[in-house]
Amino acid sequence: MRFHLIVCLACTLSGCGTFWELVMTDEEKKLLRDSAEEAAACQLSQFLQAPMGHHSLYTYEQGSCVVAPIWDESWFDKDQKAPRKRLYSDLFCKEPIQYQLTRFHSFCQDYVFSERLGNDQSLQREGAWTLNPSSRFRLPLIRQYGFEQPFMTTRVYKTVNVSDPHVFAPVSTPLQLRRGSGLCELQMRVFKEEPEAEGGIPLLLIHGGGGHKRSFHVLAMESRIPELTEQGYTVYMPFYRLMGDGQTTSECSRANWHEQRDDVDSALSWVKENKNRFGDQGGIRLIAHGSAGLLASWLLIERPQDIERVLFYYPMLDTAKMRSRIIDQGGYPDGRATLERILEAPLESVSNGSQLLHETSFLEKIVKSQGDIPPLLFIHGARDQRIPYQQSAAACSALGDIKVDEETSLLNHCGVHRYYLLPNAQYHLDLCLQGVECPAGDATSRNQVRATISAAYRWLGEDS
Question: In this protein, which residues make up the domain named BD-FAE-like (predicted)?
Fold first, then answer.
């Protein structure tokens, strides 16, 4: 199987094969090449994993309860995920636990073939836990030394019955743009350092991706989860429907803002209803990256009583202000594309009275609701070329009724809220692929960003 996959990848990357020329559009061929490149990169990335231990699971061996070697693939039957022996979560072998092996090539297939990521129900059906390779990638700026790899399990938190009258789109329509008819099953990933531990703090983590991407954004976020589980959080990461062709099944694609908003609303409700089952207690914390800032903003305004604190990384908060800035000053091509996807039209054709523009502009709403909303913390890089840092600066200025020095102030207190501006950092400032790209900036700036993230984590753990 792997040999055939490599042959297919080589053929696809080289563009060979008259079959593809005959049956695929240029856009589809490009997407296939991109997927092939991602598959090859994923396989090579196995060498980029950080060494991590994990909480021990146990099994009976010659009448004694001993540590089970779940890291050893030879302990599992070939091509099987389940171990050969029953596992337990405690050193007395009294508490059975379901565990499945995630092999690296299977992990890569999930992340490369987009219809699988967030939609594979094999873990959900048995309630099994696994060790997800993504949580060991050396992507976070925060050094991973001493962290334990968290366990992961999945559940379906929402099922949407899709009946699209446009399933039979014209042949000229790219395959990935034809919305399917069937079930869209949205997955919730749950991460814990110890699967059966009690007393965890629930944290809802909403991925970005411009509203239409998953793979890299999910991979990057999952690589940072050990930072959170190390501090006692149980991390809940939902997949939501995606806009446009999206990296998901046809049934879960071509969503709009309202559908994504409804999905994260359902995700928060699911965490609220199920956190006790995972041994968690206390208020739900929320972290959102990039364009997911809009979804988090809607939640904190509509459901402030269900959220303890919110940490925003380089967030999009107000489409009206961002649209005006891009039209007046230009730049931010990726941000423009995201806005046009959300607003469903080119920016120049969106009127100031647009209902969708109003619904996705939250600065004024946040200020009006500040007596009710939970404490907020914003982290943004001054060199961000995707989402203007002025989005976070304007929120702080309005919430604190103060003048924020947009260029030089590292920490700004905005009433009970906080805003960190990192002068030399870019978008994805919390990630760093050593020797390749580090959006946090030079060595001095990286240390500054690390200190900021550490301070943000301490703040997030406080009670409101």
Answer: 203-396
